[in-house]
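Anyone? Bumping this.
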Amino acid sequence: MSPSAFDKPRFLRVFSFLVYLFLFVPILVVILFSFNTIKSLNVFHGWSLQWYQEFLDDPSLRESLFASLEIAFATMVVSTVIGTALAIGLVRSRAGWAPGANILMLVPLVVPEIVTGISALLIFSQIGIALSIWTVIIAHITFSISYVTIVVRARMAAISQEVEEAAMDLGATRWQSVRLVLVPALWPSVVAAALLVFAFSFDDFVLSFFTTGEDLQPLPVRIWSAIRFGLSPTINAIGTLMMVVSLTAIAIAVVLPRLFGRRESGLKVLTAGEG
Amino acid sequence: MTAGRFWDRFLLPGGVWLLLLFAVPCVLVLALSFGYVDDLGRAVYATDLDNYSAAFDPTYTPVLFRSVLYALTTTALCLLIGYPVAYYIARYGGRYRNVLIALLVLPFFVNYLVRTYAWVALLADEGLVNNALIDIGVINDPIRMINTPWAVIGGLTYGYLIFMILPVYGSLERLDRSVIEAGKDLYGTPLQTFLHVTLPQTKQGILAGAVLVFLPSVGDFVAAQLLGGPDTYMVGNLIQDQFFAANNWPFGAALTVVMMIFLSVWMVAYLRSAARDVRGAAI
């Protein structure tokens, strides 16, 4: 790199382009070979849907797909409610233990997932709850609460308390001011957070791996076992379908806030207030 | 009811949930790490230190050391790859900035297992990369890529790159352009300006990114399992083995605690800055 390369867009442009290639090529390869006519992952022979057929014809894989969708849906509903309340509380409450709750909320985001998974496994076995998709849902909710809180709080911080006070001056009770003023103002970020959590939960492997039972396993856990038997285009097909599910959720998360009339917040939410 | 009390209720469901299902379980891990496995294979709580002396046994210390080494290399690679991209988008992205960032984020919503699996297909001895290299005549025999440390580090870098790019991009975007202009007047060359103005101003973003890449990398077991072999085992694989193969939960718990002690310095530093930042921008 020449000394001034860092300020030269041409070098940076080529470099960035290569990084985008690095990010997308593997994924495109997965998609391409999911349509292969032959059971090969290095020679593309022709287009077919047989691996999708194979996936959807397998009753146990189908059950796993539905289990994953159920887990993601339940996780989304519960964690969005709890996480939104927590975000509101963290911004408005002056309780002495609020900073403690804040730390408690942040820790799951930085602890490696394997630790969260093991902790969940231990508490379930300690109380004597058999592992099932319910334990997976509980573990997913624990992690997702923090995520929802971060996303909603970013929006919450921009809302002035005076608006609620104005509503109360006009005769609204405190609850009404929350329901009729605060929640509608937060709504785009709540919806986006919900969809992001759905995508996260649907894709999650590590937490599911530690907390799932034997009978009915979420799709990523099935992928894990399948990979260890060897590569197969069926895995590509499952992966591609999962991609479609999560990207749909993400697309809605980005588009919905725009429909609500806030042009910027959609992409902002995608990167949790970063973009 | 005072206004303050009213808002406290909103903290309760989340606070209690996280306390009972996150904080308490973490304490359980700590407690079980002093336990042992009885003759029937059950985990028993106790106050032994045996698991910890076992964790620092010469059999396992290389694994701990390797995990930290791989994670640090991954962090460095993510910075080297991620910074220029974030810089390019922040400075030259113009009105396409948001689209460019969204495109970067997109691959990370593809299942991590599937993304890692993609690299297995690419890097295998008869995989696409080797086949392509042989076809164009660069090599005659396949190069061994899979089951090497670099495959694992590459997989981790691919997996966690975005966690570096986003915070760095955030801090670059907040950077005042006029400061760079002033820096140019002051230091002259672009490199000097970059080193003396831009880099220090984005230190916060780099640190956040480094922590967010380093922490999950150390605990990862997917990349090492799929892209590596026994020689590239990381502490995550070791821990996972204790719970699923060796059925020695107390030892697994002790390894987890040891790993967390390694990570705690980074975590505390990060949490202190994140706790102050209400916007939560750093995550």
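Late reply, but here is one note on the structure posted above: The radius of gyration of chain A is 22 Å.
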